[in-house]
Design a protein that fits this description.
254 residues, alpha/beta, four-stranded parallel β-sheet, 39% helix, 16% strand, globular
C-alpha cells in the first residue's frame, strides 16, 4: 500500500515537507502523512483508524524552519517514560534557565489559529480564549479582584511571534496555551506555563489547568525540564534527515 500524502491544498511548504518525509521511508512503510490538516480534515479523520504520521514545525520557536517534528499516531510526542542521550538537544544550543525569582503580574493566554483548533482538534464551535476566561473567572472569589490576564493574538509570522513572546515574558507570572510552543518557550526561559491540551507535550510535564495550578503554577526542576527538552529534540529532524531516512530509523526504534 505504501504511504499516502495529504499536504494542505495550496501550501507548497506542506507538500515539500510531506514529500521529504516520504523520500526517506523504507519500502515497507505504510500509512497517511500530514503536515497540517486544513482542507484534508476528512482524510485525517479516516487515517486515525489506521497508521498516520503527523509533521509540524519544531517544538522550539528558535528552530522553526530548520527542524520539523514528527509523531506516529499522535499530534505531539508523549515524553512520559522516555529517555534521551541529550545529544540532539545539546546541538541546538538552548539553555534551560532557572525559574525567574521575580515574575510579572500577568497571565498570558496564547491562542492558536482558528483553523488549527477547528481542523486538527475538530472544535468547530469552540472559542478557546472565551472558554479559558470563563473557567478562570469561575475560580475567582466573590468581591476579590482576579489576577490580570492578557491575550497574545495569534500571528501567522512565527518568527515575529517568537520575538514578541520573548518581549512579553518579563511581564508574566504564567503562560497558558492549548498545545503551542509558547508554553515550551516559557518553561525554557524560567516562566511557569500550562497547556490545556491533553495531547500537548508540555501537558505531560505540568499537568492540566486547574484552580490550584493556576494560582500556584507547577515548577518542574531544571533537570526535569532539560530531560523534557531532550526528548522533544530527539523527535524533530531537518529536511535532510527526513530524506536520508534518519527520522524513519528513529520512529522504528521507538
Amino acid at each position: 500500500m505504501g504511504l499516502t500524502l495529504y499536504p494542505v491544498p495550496g501550501k507548497e511548504k506542506s507538500r515539500l515537507i510531506c514529500a521529504a518525509f516520504a523520500a526517506g521511508a523504507p519500502k515497507h512503510a505504510t500509512g497517511a502523512v500530514f503536515f497540517g490538516t486544513e482542507g484534508v480534515m476528512q482524510a485525517f479523520r479516516r487515517a486515525q483508524q489506521g497508521t498516520w504520521f503527523y509533521l509540524d514545525n519544531s517544538y522550539f520557536d528558535k528552530h522553526r524552519g530548520i527542524y520539523f517534528r514528527v509523531t506516529k499516531n499522535a499530534l505531539q510526542v508523549d515524553p512520559c517514560g522516555k529517555t534521551s542521550t541529550g545529544e540532539r538537544f545539546a546541538r541546538l544550543g538552548i539553555k534551560v534557565e532557572p525559574w525567574r525569582e521575580v515574575l510579572g503580574p500577568d497571565t498570558l493566554l496564547c491562542p492558536q489559529s482558528d483553523d488549527f483548533m477547528k481542523s486538527t482538534l475538530g472544535l468547530k464551535n469552540f472559542n478557546w480564549v472565551t472558554e479559558t476566561f470563563r473557567v478562570i473567572d469561575g475560580w475567582r472569589e466573590p468581591g476579590v479582584p482576579g489576577l490580570p490576564i492578557r491575550v497574545r493574538p495569534w500571528n501567522r509570522d512565527k518568527k515575529a511571534a517568537a520575538v514578541t513572546l520573548e518581549q512579553e515574558l518579563p511581564k508574566c507570572r504564567l503562560v497558558i496555551s492549548h498545545s503551542s510552543s509558547s508554553s515550551i518557550t516559557a518553561m525554557i526561559r524560567g516562566v511557569p506555563s500550562l497547556s490545556t491540551g491533553p495531547t500537548a507535550a508540555a501537558y505531560h510535564l505540568t499537568g492540566p489547568l486547574t484552580r490550584e495550578s493556576f494560582l500556584e503554577p507547577p515548577r518542574p526542576s531544571i533537570e526535569e525540564r532539560t530531560r523534557f527538552c531532550e526528548i522533544l529534540a530527539d523527535n524533530q529532524f531537518t529536511l535532510e534527515e527526513f530524506k536520508n531516512g534518519t527520522a524513519w530509523k528513529w520512529l522504528e526504534r521507538t
